[in-house]
Each structure stands twice: as C-alpha cells, then as structure tokens.
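Ticket #4471: complex job returned nothing on first submit. Input attached below:
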Amino acid sequence: MCGIVAYIGKKEAYPIILKGLKRLEYRGYDSAGIALINKDELNVFKKAGKVSNLEEFMLDQDHAGNSGIGHTRWATHGLPTDTNAHPHVSMDGSIALIHNGIIENYDALKQELVRQGYLFKSETDTEVLVHLVDFISKKENVWFGEALRLSLLNVVGAYAIVAISKNFPNQMVAARKSSPLVVGIGATGDFYLASDATPIVEYTKQVVYLEDEEIAVIKLGEELKIYNISDQEKTPYIQQLELELEALEKGGYEHFMLKEINEQPRSIQDCFRGRLNAKEGWVSLGGIKDYEQKMIQANRLILVACGTSWHAALVGEYLIEDLARINVEVEYASEFRYRNPILTENDVVIAISQSGETADTMAALELAKSKGATILGICNVVGSSISRITHAGSYTHAGPEIGVASTKAFTAQVTVLILMALSLGHKKGTVSESEFRILLAELEEIPNKVKKVLESNALIEQIAREYKDASNALYLGRGSSFPVALEGALKLKEISYIHAEGYPAAEMKHGPIALIDENMPIFVVATKGKSYEKVVSNIQEVKARKGKIIAVVTEGDEQVRAMADHVIEIPETNEFLVPLLATIPFQLLSYHIAVMRGCNVDQPRNLAKSVTVE
Ligand code: M6R
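Support reply: We reran it on our side without changes. The output follows.
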C-alpha cells in the first residue's frame, strides 16, 4: 500500500506529481505529501487526509521546481497526521524521502540513531530511513545515493523508496524490495517514477520495472543506471507500456466501481479474446501451455490468494475438480505461508491476484518455489511482481481496476479459471468433445448475457433502497455459487459497512439461522441446477422465520418468485458459468446501498487497493 510518484526533468514537477498522486490514491488515502527542489531549496508540503486536502493547501504555496517526490499514505506506523505524512526529511533539511512498505527492524535502527543524536518527529518507520541515509552519508563521506544503498544493507523489510537531496538537485535515487516501483524514461531526458505505470502512461510508454534489491540512479543528462544492492551495474530492461490513458478515467460514470461493473461484458470478452474458438472447438491459454501436462499430472493444484481473488480461487476449485478431475486445494495466502505446508516438486501452486503485488500472496509463492513446487500466476496488472516471479501465468486482461472493491477483476479471474478447467479437462479426456463444445459456445455468449444482467440495474437500485438501512445481511449459495455468496457479502461489508456473512446455503441451519428475523435480508443464489431444489427448501426455512429473501434466479423461474420478497433474473446458462452472471446483481446491490448510505464507494475507509504489507 501507499502510492509513490516522482519526477525529474525540465517541466514543472508539481502538476505531474499531483496528478500522479490522484491516480495512485487507490493505494492509500490517509495523508499525502510532496517535496520539491527549487534551485537550492527543498520545500516540503504535507497534509492529513486525501490528496484533495493537499491540493487545496497548495493553492497558496510556491510550488515551483523541476524535481520532486510525492506520496499518498496507507498508515501502518502512526496515525494519519500531517507529521506522519511522507516525505520525511533529514534533520539538516537536505534530504527528502518517500517510502512504500514496512521497515521491520525500524525500532533497533531508531534506537541507534537516537544514540547518535537524531531527533524523530514522526511515529513512522520511514523516518528511520532518512536519518540513516543522512548518518551514513556523513560518516562515510559519500553522496546520498551511495548512502541509501549502504543504508539498505542494514534494513530488514519491504520498500519502494525514492529520495532527493537539495545538494544534488539534478539527481534522484530509488530502490525496491517487495514493493513495486516503475521508472518511466521520457523522450526529452526526463524521468518519472511511480508505484505503478498509471501516473506515467500519459508522458511515456518506455518503462523499466525495478527488480528486488535494485537501485535506480538518475542523473539529468545521463542514461538511467541500475545497480544491485552490492553495487554491480545491471542493464536496464526497457519495456513498452500497453496501458491506454482512457482506461484510467471514469468515462462519464459517477464512480470507478460503477464503470468497472459496467465494463464486464468487454472485460470478460477481452479475457478470452484469442484464447477460445467455439466454432473450431479449441481453447488455449498461451502463457501456461507448456505447464499443462505438469498440471494434469500434479499431486495437487494449490490456489493461493486473498480477499476477492480467494473467492475466485474457490470457484476455480469447483470447476477444475469437476471438469478436469485434478485435486485442487484453495488456501488463504496469509495462512499458507506460515503453516509449513507439505509441498513437493509434483505440486503446482497458482497465485491469483488482481494487483499482482499482494504481500501475502507473493510470500506464499516464494515459499512454494523454495520447496521446489511449480508456481504459476493469474494476475491482472501486467508486469506486476507476481507475474515476474512465477514460472508462467495467464493475464486476466480486465484493464486497470481503480475502485478498491474488486468487480471486473473477479469475473476475469473466474473466466481464466474456466478456460483453464476446460483446457485441462479436454486434454485429459475428462470433458467429452460434445460437452467441451457446448461449454465453449456458452462461454462465448456470456458477455451478451452479462449485458442483460446489467439491464436489471434499475430494479436492483429499488431493492437497494429497501435494504440500505439493514445492520446485518446473509448471503447464501451452493456449489460454485457459494463463493458468489462470499463475494456478495464481502462487497457489501467493504463498501457500505453493513455486517454481512456468506454461507453455503445448507450450513444456515447449523447456526446462522438463529439470526433470522423480519429485519434480516437474505440474498440467495437460487438458479436452476443440481442444487436448485435444496436451495428452494432453504428459502422456505428462511420464510418460516420471517426473513426477507432477495433471490437471484434463472429467467422465468416462477417457483422462487412465489416465495421470495424480490427476485433478480439472470439469463439461463450452463451451471459452470453461473458465477459469472450471479455475482453481478450483488456488485450492483452493494454499489447502490453504499451510495445511498453516503459512503465513499471507490475508497472505502481503512482499505487500500494493493495490500503490499502483511
Ligand atoms: O490484488 P489482489 O487480488 O491480490 O488483492 C486481494 C484482496 O486484497 C482484494 O481482493 C480485496 O479483498 C478487495 N478489496 C475486494 O474487493
């Protein structure tokens, strides 16, 4: 979490940094700050709260300068105050530094620096870094870039750092370990740095993604230099960005979340573009093609993920086990990494992550790799850390997801998992040719069917009005709709702050049923399929206790309509594909409820889009 952005060149740095911070605000929005070098002055501006607070404050400030760094914070150490905001500055006021990550040994370092006479203003772990750089630069008599490298030899933890010094106004240094950092190379000898490519894309498409323990040294008038932590020079690997600027704008929608929900017909289509052809009867996930035999013969496929991506993994478990008859386990990355799991070379660990930066998911992969397992990734962000450490993987191609609540990334992850299950099942012979072709044809129809579900928006908004003041909600589903229930509950709680739980419908009678009364809305996936009759019985059990039923049903269903308080119809589809449709009414419901409750939909409290700390 935390977003960092920096610029050095001939242009005014402030507008570039401010715009970049707005793009990165999804990574944290507790406070924001900027440091600018103007001739031989270093000016620092910091404000608690959103970037807009800082922007307002800057109206009366002199923000001249051609070099600067900016930060938007997701608080780890210390409250979100002006003082704890980044950048942090050395005691002599010469060096300023921004940081994304956590310095785990900050306390020991701080005690040593205090002994050396350093005074700390903030409660952050980051302030330790700037004092350490200052201390080493004076002690070793080296420039601040070398001092940063030497400092990092003493640091335990995760970091993406950019530092500037008013004594070296034409230079900038940056380093990364476990937190992302991209350097953009401008056409006119200027440089842009950021946590991801979104603040850079409108200025240049030439980027270098820093690897772990790499240091970027930028000197105006010279080429970008990259060193490893042992000071050996490396050749920068320059990549071409494929991101388009329009993808980062709201495109007329009031919120990114609503835009992203409505993008799903296209994002699902983009996800299977070039990967499936129903007429010719083939499916191909190019990125993992060479690993498919390994997956078919694996002991187990272990899907590791967090949050929404973990829900997608659960859908994947139902699909891969059923269609490809391969043993699948789904693990919370945060638990897996500390459980000393039994792993062998015959296991394939697949990480699912929108951002490709989630710290727990990264650590789970690293552990699996160290034990000899094959590691694969399903990520949305191209060039992200997970996509770079895995042996192979498949991108979801959903386009940038800015709203903190994941929507289109989920359906794209599920789409990749369906393609994977079909491809493996077809190759293994567990899916017959006719079933394979039927599923492919049905999958090609999904974008149109998603469009149809989105047409229920007005009805869903009406339903939202009725339940917006609920304090609790239950979500129920069976089979691959159970993860849809979990995902529905997560969406509601994270953006509207209503307490919600997802359950397999049959589990309701083992406890949650005690909560049901006339005030409790129960959202149920009751589509036609293997468990339909069972779910209908669960609905009756709820009605017998006066609970309110809002059911997602298959078009034309009269049985559930007769029992439920509200129904939302989705088009008929193959049971394996239902999660792609059934999840959408729940996304819209959460969205409308959150808007009606006056919540900040795109930036819910306490959350950040990219969780790069444990
Ligand atoms: O980037 P990732 O997919 O690895 O993120 C995992 C979770 O942090 C994320 O899905 C989170 O649960 C979302 N806020 C849910 O909407």
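The first strand starts at residue 3 and ends at 8. Closing as resolved unless it happens again.
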